């Protein structure tokens, strides 16, 4: 071999040791004899650096030797007193990988992973609970293990098999358990809460235990992203258990530290939890309560010092924005130069913070990964931890919605929804107050998932009663009723005040599900009419006629359709329908619900808007037939005008557009006479220049 010829002297120590080990292993020595051989050949204190000599060999030869060495070291793991030898072999393998280009095939990596598993299990796991010197040595070894796993990840890349990734995951589970045991031990010895920095000195370098755990969770996250859907149930259970232990340990003192390193740790850890919960392999019922209680603590992570205690009225918001539009508080000219840039930057930062706290609206740029952080001073990227925690709640909701029902009071407010929770945040806190749009959108999606999964339970159980005295017992049904009431309040606020289109779409989806799931006969009688009135007010928005707002109008009409379709029919809703229809003034008539809906099906409106409005009118006629005579006269006139505007071929009229104009007019008169006529959802057809007509009317006495 060319490499060995040119550098034979330099490679001799490594080659001699490994060839001797191979020759001695042919006779299948006992584990004790093999352990003595490893100590004699590879770990003498006065031997030259084997790792340096391995650099003179070819990558393939070194890889084969490393795999063989790992295989033999794993065989001596059961021997008493083998810990020092195993740690020495681990350190040697790490040094070789750092100094050489090592090529290891799949079977060789499996041998290395088996060795690391035995090493952590036998010689490190127990040492983490012993004296300080043993714990220091164990942490150094864990650092070596993590570096070897990084080389493995770099070598395998995206091509690792399920078997290889599963082996790496098992090793990471043990490493994380050991690191967490060390953190708990240091925490207890300090006696002052969770320690944010633990240093271990080795080779004049400081290793931060939190950094090591972050590295372990980052690798676990990468692996779970690849194999979460295909790993075994046993391995899935092991991952869930270690994540549960870490979370309980982190939150045991109700202390979530806000710092750069801890933000990275929480984010990496919660992302691992998200991948596991999104692909459940078994029941989560035993973990739901613990996970939810702990995840809820992250809803305002990084925001406790920057959010208001309640929503500021619009006039105050405007004032604060005008004050913060400048460069901070006013300073006399003679003081500005003395303060210099440092004080100006501080004022700028406080001014920006003040503006962002009271500005509940947001822009599309907040959807990026960077704009929101700079705008809101999220220097620790804490919003990533909040987002991951919300995604975990969403996963739990989809995996086990039944177990989540009793925990709704932890996740959703029962009172004062428009006030920021200082000590217990909710999903509505995230939806209304969070400065990052991504977080708000996912909070809305999680609430929607909760409503969707428990719609039947809410319909059968929830009821609203006036809140009783503080401290008195509240049944789950009353608690759910109060939550539904607060959800209505929060959603109505967002519908009326929010302008960001992506968030509005998520809010309207929540509102549709909320309307469908709420038992309005057991809620305050004015609740549903208030929703309908607020939605109609949004239809009157002047900007709603612009092309970019058609989606908003369609969403509003979908909410109205769900509201008018609620059964049993409500006399209060009927009162809203007929209110102002025959008012004394033209302004009153134009503000009536019926007139607003009829305006949405006129000629100049977009197809999707007209389709949505006609479906709302269909629900109105179906649930409140006595309103039909008010609606049909106007609908008939609009449809006839459209028919007269367009010229159609005879075959199109016969095939697509149902009865002729005379029959439409006849059925209109029948409807006015009191015969029930139902609107058909398929009664609309796209014609030429965005014109649509009604078809397939069916009447029955």
UniProtKB/TrEMBL annotation:
Residues 384-562 form the DUF4042 domain. This is DUF4042 domain-containing protein. Residues 311-372 are annotated as: Disordered. It comes from the Eukaryota. Residues 340-357 have a biased composition (Basic and acidic residues). InterPro entries: ARM-like, ARM-type_fold, DUF4042, HEAT6. SUPFAM superfamilies: ARM repeat. It comes from Triticum turgidum subsp. durum (Durum wheat). The lineage of its organism: Eukaryota, Viridiplantae, Streptophyta, Embryophyta, Tracheophyta. Pfam families: DUF4042. Residues 326-339 have a biased composition (Basic residues).
